[in-house]
Design brief:
The chain is an alpha/beta fold and 702 residues long. It is built from 20 helices and 19 strands. It has a five-stranded mixed beta sheet with strand order 2-4-5-7-6. Strands 9-8-10-11-12 form a five-stranded parallel beta sheet, with helices on both faces. Strand 6 and strand 7 (258-265) form a beta hairpin. Helix 1 runs antiparallel to helix 2, helix 1 (2-71) packs across helix 6 (294-304) and helix 9 crosses helix 13 (439-462). The longest helix has 70 residues, at 2-71.
C-alpha cells in the first residue's frame, strides 16, 4: 500500500517536471521567434530609413542645383531682395541635406553598416587648415579661436572625412555657446599611444552631472520651452559613435566652460576588418540605387565636400547679420518687430512684410521686450519657444505695460496644441500662425491686425463719451498751462506787494511796479478765462446730445496767447519769434483748436537745445485758407519716424512722458475742420497747418 502511494507521487512529480520542461521549451521558442521578428523589423526599419532618406536627397538635389544656377547668374541678373531670398533658400536646403546625412549615418550605425576609409593623416596639419577656415567666422561674432600643438608627431590612421565631422561639431558647439568676446581653443597633445584633440571654450558650459547624457541621441541640455540654442541633438551622439568606431574615446567636462577631449589611437592595426570600407562606390548611395541616380547623388556628394556645406553649422552659429535694410524702409507707415531666435525665420518674415512694413528684429524675448518699449512698433511678431523668456511671457509683460499694452501681437508656433493657443489668447495674443506659414497669410494677418488697431484708435478719438479719459488728457493742457502761468503771475504780484508794504520801493520804482502788476493781473484774468472756457467745454462733452458749436476765432491772436502761457510753463530759455501779420480768423471750436496750437508750440519748445533754442511761428493768408507754421531748431524728426508721427500711441519721448496721442489728436481736430497738418523735412522740425477760413454748412451745424 505504501509502495503504491509512493509510485503515484513520483509519477506526478515527474509528469510536472516534463510539463514544465515542455512549457519552458515553448516559451524559449516563442521568445526566439519574437527576437528574430524584432531583428527583422529593426533591419526593415533601418533599411526603410536609409531608403527614405535617399529619396529625400533626390528631390533636394533637384532643388539645390537650380538654386545654385540662379545664384551664379545663369538665369539673369538678380535684385538684392531676390538674391537674399534665394541665398536663404539655398542655405536652408544645405541644412536639410546635412540633417539627412546625419540621420542616414545614425541608421547605418544601428545596423553596424557604417564603414571607414582609413588612411594616414597628420592631425596637426589638418587642424591648422580647419582652424584657419573657421577663424574668420568666429571673428565676426567677436570670438578668438586659436590652435596650440603640444605633440612632436601627430600622425594617425583615421577616416578623415568622418573624423572631420566630429571636430566640426565640437567647433560649432563651441562658437554657438561662447558669447561675443569669448575664447575657443583647440589643443593637440600626445597621450601615450593616443593623440588627443581638446576643444574648450569659456562659454556657460553645462551641468557636470550631464556629462554623459549629452552624448545620448536627441538629448539636449536645454530641452524646455525657452531653449536658448537650437539643434536636433544628433551631433554629439554621432561624434561619439564615429570616435568609438575608430577605437577612440570622447569625454566631456564642464568647469568655466565646456571642454571636449577626443582620443585617437595612432596605428592602423587596431581597426577590426568589419569596419573598414574596401568598396569603390560612393558611400551615400544605398544598394539598388547606384545605377539609377548616379548623377543626382554625385551632386549631393560634391555638395557635401564644399566649404559652405562643411562649415554650415559654424556659419549659422556665428551669423550676426539677420537681414539687410531696405532702401525705402523709412517711407513705410508701420513698423513690425520680429522676435525669433532663428535668423532664417526673421529673413522670411522680413521678405513677406517688406512691401508694407519696416521690419526690425530681436533674437530673444528680453531683447524683444526692450525694443518694443523703445521703438513702439505697430505690430509684434513673436515665436512661442524662445531663449530668455518665451512668447507667452513676452506677451504678458507687453500687456502689463502702459506703453505697449495696445500693440497687437502675432504669435508664430510649431506647436499647434489647442492648450497652447488658448493659453496664448488668455495672455493677450492677438492671433496665431502655425509653422510653416504662408507668406501671403502672414502679410494678410499682419495688415488686418494693424488696421484693427487703427480702427480702435479712431473709435477712441471720435466717440467723445466713450473716450472721456483721452479727451480729458488732451484738454488738461488747456488747464495746466494757463494755471502754471497764473501761479507764476500771482507769485510775481505777491513779491511786488510785499516789497511795497515793507517800504523797500523808491518813488522812482513805483510807476514801473504798478505797470508790471497791471500786466500780471491782465494775464492772470486771461488765464482764468481760458480755464473757464475749457471747463465749460468739458462740461458740454458730458451732456447728452451735445453738438460741436463752431465760432469765428482769430487763430493768430490765439497763437500769441498760447505762447504767452506755454513758454513760462516749460521753464526753458527758448526764444520764440512771432510773425503773424493781420488777422487769421477761421471757424472752429476754440477750446479744441487751442489743443492743436498748445501741442505744436509745446513740442517745439521742448525739442530745442538747452542753449540757443529758437522757435519761429509764422502765419499768413493764402486765398481762402489760413496757414500757420511752427518750426524749431532742435534735432528734427528722424526719417524713419516721419511717416509714423501722427500714428496713435507713437511717441519719440521717453517712457512716462506722454501717451503718444498729442499729435494724433491735433491731426484729428485739423481733419475735422477740413484742414491739413503736415511735417516738412529739413533741419529742425516744421509743422504746417492749413485751414479753410469758412467751414461747409454741413460741418458747421454738426
Amino acid at each position: 500500500m505504501v509502495g503504491g502511494t509512493g509510485q503515484i507521487v513520483l509519477y506526478r512529480s515527474l509528469r510536472e517536471q516534463v510539463l514544465n520542461q515542455v512549457r519552458l521549451e515553448e516559451t524559449k521558442a516563442s521568445l526566439e521567434a519574437a527576437h528574430e521578428q524584432l531583428k527583422a523589423l529593426d533591419s526593415f526599419k533601418s533599411q526603410f530609413f536609409a531608403n527614405i532618406t535617399h529619396e529625400f536627397k533626390t528631390p533636394l538635389a533637384m532643388v539645390l542645383a537650380p538654386l545654385e544656377l540662379i545664384l551664379q547668374g545663369e538665369m539673369g541678373e538678380l535684385s538684392a531682395a531676390h538674391r537674399g531670398t534665394f541665398e536663404s533658400m539655398f542655405r536652408s536646403g544645405l541644412k536639410l541635406l546635412k540633417m539627412i546625412g546625419d540621420l542616414l549615418d545614425l541608421s547605418r550605425m544601428e545596423e553596424s553598416k557604417l564603414r571607414l576609409k582609413v588612411a594616414e593623416h597628420d592631425l596637426a596639419e589638418y587642424l591648422r587648415a580647419l582652424v584657419s577656415q573657421v577663424q574668420p567666422l568666429a571673428q565676426r561674432k567677436g570670438i578668438e579661436l586659436s590652435l596650440r600643438v603640444e605633440a612632436t608627431s601627430t600622425v594617425v590612421w583615421c577616416d578623415l572625412e568622418r573624423i572631420e565631422r566630429v571636430f566640426l561639431n565640437l567647433l560649432s558647439n563651441a562658437t554657438k555657446f561662447t558669447q561675443p568676446g569669448g575664447h575657443v581653443q583647440v589643443i593637440v597633445r600626445e597621450a601615450s599611444a593616443r593623440i588627443e584633440v581638446v576643444v574648450q571654450d569659456d562659454g556657460p558650459g553645462f551641468p557636470p552631472e550631464k556629462a554623459d547624457r549629452i552624448f545620448e541621441r536627441f538629448y539636449q541640455v536645454d530641452m524646455g520651452g525657452t531653449r536658448r540654442y537650437g539643434g536636433t541633438g544628433i551631433g554629439l551622439a554621432l561624434a561619439k559613435e564615429i570616435v568609438e568606431l575608430h577605437g577612440g574615446q570622447i569625454r566631456a567636462e564642464s568647469s568655466g566652460g565646456a571642454k571636449f577631449t577626443v582620443g585617437l589611437l595612432r596605428d592602423r592595426d587596431h581597426f577590426p576588418a568589419e569596419v573598414l570600407d574596401r568598396r569603390g562606390p560612393a558611400r551615400d548611395v544605398p544598394e539598388g540605387h547606384r545605377a539609377n541616380d548616379r548623377g543626382l547623388m554625385d551632386f549631393a556628394v560634391q555638395m557635401s565636400a564644399r566649404d559652405e556645406y562643411r562649415l554650415l553649422d559654424i556659419a549659422e552659429a556665428t551669423e550676426r547679420r539677420v537681414s539687410v535694410r531696405d532702401s525705402d524702409e523709412d517711407q513705410k507707415a508701420h513698423l513690425a518687430l520680429v522676435v525669433d531666435d532663428t535668423p532664417d525665420i526673421i529673413r522670411l518674415v522680413h521678405n513677406s512684410l517688406r512691401a508694407h512694413f519696416k521690419v526690425i528684429s530681436a533674437d530673444d524675448g528680453l531683447k524683444g521686450l526692450e525694443m518694443a518699449v523703445r521703438e513702439r512698433p505697430s505690430l509684434v511678431i513673436a515665436d512661442l519657444m524662445m531663449p530668455g523668456i518665451d512668447g507667452l511671457e513676452l506677451t504678458r509683460r507687453l500687456r502689463n505695460s502702459e506703453e505697449t499694452r495696445h500693440i497687437p501681437i502675432l504669435m508664430l508656433t510649431a506647436k499647434g496644441d489647442l492648450e497652447d493657443r488658448v493659453a496664448g489668447l488668455e495672455t493677450g495674443v492677438s492671433a496665431y500662425l502655425a509653422k510653416p506659414f504662408s507668406p501671403r497669410e502672414l502679410l494678410t494677418t499682419a495688415r488686418a491686425l494693424v488696421q484693427a488697431q487703427e480702427t480702435t484708435a479712431d473709435i477712441v478719438l471720435t466717440q467723445r463719451m466713450d473716450s472721456l479719459e483721452i479727451v480729458a488728457g488732451g484738454l488738461a493742457h488747456e488747464i495746466n498751462n494757463p494755471l502754471n502761468y497764473l501761479k507764476n503771475a500771482l507769485a510775481r504780484v505777491r513779491m511786488d506787494a510785499e516789497a511795497l508794504v515793507a517800504g523797500r520801493l523808491s518813488a522812482e520804482e513805483l510807476p514801473r511796479v504798478e505797470k508790471r502788476m497791471r500786466e500780471m493781473f491782465e494775464l492772470a484774468e486771461g488765464g482764468i478765462r481760458r480755464i473757464a472756457g475749457t471747463v465749460e467745454l468739458m462740461s458740454s462733452y458730458s451732456k447728452a446730445g451735445y453738438s460741436r458749436q463752431l465760432r469765428p476765432y482769430d487763430v493768430f491772436g490765439a497763437v500769441r496767447e498760447v505762447v504767452a502761457m506755454v513758454l513760462p510753463a516749460t521753464g526753458r530759455p527758448v526764444q520764440v519769434d512771432l510773425d503773424l501779420p493781420g488777422e487769421g480768423t477761421i471757424e472752429c471750436v476754440p477750446e479744441e483748436f487751442n489743443q492743436v496750437l498748445s501741442n505744436l508750440v509745446q513740442n517745439a519748445i521742448e525739442a530745442c537745445p538747452e542753449s540757443g533754442g529758437l522757435v519761429r511761428v509764422r502765419g499768413s493768408r493764402e486765398g481762402e485758407n489760413v496757414v500757420i507754421s511752427v518750426k524749431d531748431n532742435g534735432p528734427g524728426v528722424r526719417p524713419e519716424d516721419a511717416t509714423r508721427i501722427f500714428t496713435p500711441f507713437f511717441t519719440t519721448k521717453g517712457p512716462g512722458r506722454g501717451m503718444g496721442m498729442g499729435l494724433t489728436i491735433a491731426w484729428r481736430v485739423v481733419q475735422s475742420l477740413e484742414g491739413t497738418l503736415e511735417l516738412r523735412p529739413g533741419p529742425g522740425a516744421e509743422f504746417v497747418l492749413r485751414l479753410p477760413r469758412k467751414q461747409s454748412r454741413l460741418r458747421a451745424v454738426s
